Amino acid sequence: MVVAFTGCYAPAVPSEVPCGANDACPGGQVCDHGRPVPTCVDQTGDAGMQGGFDAEQVTIDAPAEDPLPTGAVMRLRFDDDPTDGVLDSQGMHVATCANATCPALVMGVVGGAYQFSADHVEVDDAADLRSSGGFTVAAWIQIETSATQEMMLVCKEYFMLAESYALSLTGANNVRLRFTGPNGALTGPLVVTRNVWHHVALTWDGSAVRLYFDGAPNGQMQQVPLLFDNGKLQIGACHGAQSFAGSIDDVQVYSRALDAAEITELAN
């Protein structure tokens, strides 16, 4: 699928600077974190355009669907404009914008990605999103500025503003699992770096929860009884609050706990 939109590609306007000797880009182009931004062809363009650059049509070519481990029940690649809802590549779930505004479509790790600010998308509850025998949630994330408070990445809502589980980013840029129950939090020691794509994952085998960061173990907790109801799955917030500021790509959900080797493969 090819997604087209008009305007200057600007995942983060403040980071767009002319390419220099230390960038992996030819001179004379505009870079976004060391990568060329070929859609902004005139650095002295119309000041009325976003970022002060001339605009031309941009296309994001979604790569071919790569095989997933067994048990995949949802994959949101975020290659499409979210305005009218996005069907996951497994064909069973639809993500829709929860507010009047939608996240922006930008370049991601695989094809497109969604850049969130005060917006989020959500998926209606389904039995395969609350597997009592275990599950895996994985995604790519990127932040432009360091977190100052906890921000939600992926959240399965639970009764009375709680969560069955939630992957979040702490104010210290650590990945955290939150859940309803005793000792309801697990914070990994590894830290997210600004302007770098990181792969994060959570697995639950019906008892133990494990966090992974860029394919490596990032903490675990034994005997965790997760609780589920018909709450929605939100991406970029939880119960519409604690909004994520950054980009998210390729959100995957499995109906079983992937093992460490499978998580490493996803991160690679």
Task: Compile the SSE list and pairings.
Blueprint: E1 2-6, E2 16-18, E3 30-32, E4 35-36, E5 57-61, E6 72-76, E7 86-87, E8 94-97, E9 104-107, E10 112-116, E11 121-123, E12 135-142, E13 151-158, E14 162-169, E15 174-178, E16 185-191, E17 198-204, E18 209-213, E19 216-221, E20 233-235, E21 246-254, H1 260-267
Antiparallel strand pairs: 1-5, 2-3, 3-4, 6-21, 7-8, 8-11, 9-10, 10-21, 11-20, 12-17, 12-21, 13-14, 13-20, 14-15, 15-16, 17-18, 18-19
Count of separate structural domains: 2
Q: What's the CATH C level of the largest domain?
A: Mainly Beta
How would a textbook summarize the main sheet?
A: 8 strands, antiparallel
Q: Give the amount of beta strand, in percent.
A: 35-45%
Anisotropy-based shape: globular
Q: Give the ordered list of helices and strands.
A: EEEEEEEEEEEEEEEEEEEEEH
Cα(first) to Cα(last) distance is 23 Å
Low-confidence stretches: 1-59
Short description:
The chain has 268 residues and is mainly β.
Characterise the protein shown here.
The chain has 268 residues and is mostly beta strands. The chain folds into two domains: 59 residues, no CATH class; 201 residues, Jelly Rolls (Sandwich). The protein is built from one helix and 21 strands. The strands form four sheets. Strands 6, 9, 10, 12, 17, 18, 19 and 21 form an eight-stranded antiparallel β-sheet that branches. The longest helix is centred in the C-terminal third of the chain and has 8 residues. The chain is globular. The chain starts with a strand and ends with a helix. The N terminus is likely disordered.
